Amino acid sequence: MKQRKLGNHGLEVSAIGLGCMGMSFSYGEIPPVKDMVKLIHQAHDLGVTFFDTAEIYGPYTNELLVGEALEPIRDKVVLATKFGFEIGEDGSWNGLTSRPDDIRKACEGSLKRLRTDVIDLFYQHRVDPSVPVEDVAGTVRDLIAEGKVRHFGLSEAGPQTIRRAHAVQPVAALQSEYSLWTRQHEQNIMPVVEELGIGWVAYSPLGKGFLTGAIKDAAEIRDGDFRKALPRYQPEAMKNNRVVVDLLTEIGNEKGATPAQIALAWVLSRKPWIVPIPGTTKLHRLKENLAAIEVALSEEDLDRINLAAEMVQGGRYTEATEAMTGL
Questions:
Q1: What pLDDT was estimated at residue 111?
Q2: Torsion-angle region of residue 106: left (phi > 0), alpha (psi -120 to 50) or beta?
Q3: Are 259 and 297 in contact (CB under 8 A)?
Q4: Residue 320 scores a pLDDT above 80
Q5: How many alpha carbons fall within 13 Å on the CB side of residue 301?
Q6: Hey, which residues are catalytic here?
């Protein structure tokens, strides 16, 4: 697996990472833990060195899974997790919190669940408007000084928030949604990230699965799958947005590649400091995703994809969820 530098702050990871959320959260039926531990080991055997989780995934169960899987190879991987949600004793989400004491509590909990002494990349999962980001950055700076964290990250933060945080503690990476049909960050946020030497971790690079072509109809989405509520996954929007998948399929057929590989190759082509973290629970999909690193797109291919992407209908999130992004 080729490597990429996530910005200019010392993080180097596999060019494609693994988002582990779906192994225990959000997409309906949850696979057995032992199967997902095996899949994480297989991912590492295939060259993946970058694994992503968060305390809110479950909550907590995904960190427990990732911690169990990575314990035998901990010194060979980069491990990222996130803080920033207030989690009730019953596992309920009670809004955002990035108060310093809560960040420290989250860090201690993550370290224990992940079976590690240090978190390689510790993100603020969502910007908490009630806490100055300078206080957040300062707290993570202190955790870095204490040896509990190596690098500070933000997720779905706006340009001014990034600048303010970076002035206190260098931001190593920004994790925000990015794919050929989610490009709103390109105008105002990506230039700031590039200026400051921050890496970009692209979550949902396959449009939460839609860009793979595997989901052809809204009726195929099972109960308990959070995509049922997303605007782009409503029946009419899905029908319209098939034009994008059809084009990816067409280009893929020309290159002996799948739609997912073309979509990931598009993300990889954008900037050398962008690392996508597609998730999966299946070995054949994992292998398919990782093979995207070998797919080359011509300028003509990129022009065709960009034109089709302009026709996408529907927002990426509901209004309530979008309001939590801090943009």
A1: 98
A2: alpha
A3: no
A4: no
A5: 19
A6: 57
User: Does position 14 have pLDDT exceeding 90, yes or no?
Assistant: yes
Count how many residues are written for the chain.
Answer: 327
Q: Which residues lie across from 50 on neighbouring strands?
A: 78
pLDDT, mean over the chain: 93
The maximal CA–CA distance of the chain, rounded, in angstroms, is 54
**What is the average per-residue pLDDT within 114-139?**
98
pLDDT at residue 149, as a whole number: 98
Whether the model pTM is above 0.85:
yes
Q: What is the distance between the alpha carbons of residues 319 and 187, in angstroms, rounded to a whole number?
A: 21
Angle, nearest 10°, between helix axes 283-290 and 33-45?
Answer: 30
3 state SS for the chain:
CCEEECECCCCEEECCCEECHHHCCCECCCCCHHHHHHHHHHHHHCCCCEEECCCCCCCCHHHHHHHHHHHHHHHHCEEEEEECEEECCCCCEEEECCCHHHHHHHHHHHHHHCCCCCEEEEEECCCCCCCCHHHHHHHHHHHHHCCCEEEEEEECCCHHHHHHHHHHCCEEEEEEECECCECCHHHHCHHHHHHHCEEEEEECCCHHHHHHCCCCCHHHCCCCEHHHHCHHHCHHHHHHHHHHHHHHHHHHHHHCCCHHHHHHHHHHHHCCCEEECCECCCHHHHHHHHHHHHCCCCHHHHHHHHHHHCCCCCCCCCHHHHCCCCC
Place of tokens 């970058």: 50
Amino acid of residue 177: E
Q: Which two tokens stand for residue 145?
A: 């000084």
C-beta of residue 98 within 8 angstroms of C-beta of residue 124: yes
Q: Please give the torsion angle defined by the CA atoms of residues 66, 72, 74 and 80, in that order, rounded to the nearest 10 degrees.
A: -10
Q: Which amino acid, residue 64?
A: L
| pLDDT, average across residues 276-282 | 97
Report CA dihedral (43, 74, 157, 316) to the nearest 10 degrees: 20
Q: Which two tokens stand for residue 9?
A: 């702050």
